[in-house]
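Comment thread on ticket #2218

A.B. wrote:
> Attaching the input chain for the structure job we discussed in standup.
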Amino acid sequence: MGSSFDLSGRVAIVTGGVGLLGKQHGIALREAGAHVVVADVDAKKACDFAEELAGRSVDAKEPPKTLGLGVDVTDKASLERLRDAILETFGRLDVLVNNAAINDMFESPQAGAELSKFENYPLELWKRSLDVNVTGVFLCSQILGTPMAKAGRGSIINVASTYGLVGPDQSIYKKPDGTQSFYKSASYPATKGAVLSFTRFLATYWGKDGVRVNSLCPGGIENGQDEYFLENYSRKTPLGRMGHADEMSGAIVFLASDASSYMTGSALVVDGGWTAW
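C.D. wrote:
> Ran it. Output below, let me know if you need it in another format.
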């Protein structure tokens, strides 16, 4: 059974590869034996993390290789250069993790309190989220997935969110004194819902070509949030806490590998039970 999770010899690309989840996806794929391409808009950080990955010990006869490359997921030419570099280096593509995304941040609590409200949410932020979170997934899949379809094999993993499945609970962003400095904006749930629909489209389109397409829907990940937010979030979760970034690793390897060989068009939810009630 363990061999079905083995990714030895396969080439896996992670976009947004130096982010909180992106790094963990890269670590998990490399430890499963895959050659990992770290792709990120910050080319230097992508190269640095690829070097860090290469230095990690892996129990294999031939340690998997790593490669760091800069890419803009909204730019077709940038993605074509990425594809060509990967094919020149490895000669194949097997796994694409569409992880790059925008999740609104505001420069100050005062700005966030007003701009994150739906009534005031800036159109330019809405358009930027659509460009990265939806068009970026479309372009990456089109340009990097097409060689997989031609080869008759591959796995595409689109990172969505529980907020693609359910609406945000704005109350978890309230402070103990009842004030609120942030509202979850409309763009993130809307774009992640679009990713789920696109996943189903691509699964049915490329199924005949041996390319499986699934979504991963993580719950909230602990990353230095304020204590009041951690408490609010945890109360709404059956397991009573936020997730840790490395708790997505098993799901990523499962979806990338032959362990999920009869699974496509699905959304794998890893959220501590958040969507269960």
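A.B. wrote:
> Thanks. Noting for the ticket: The mean pLDDT is 95.
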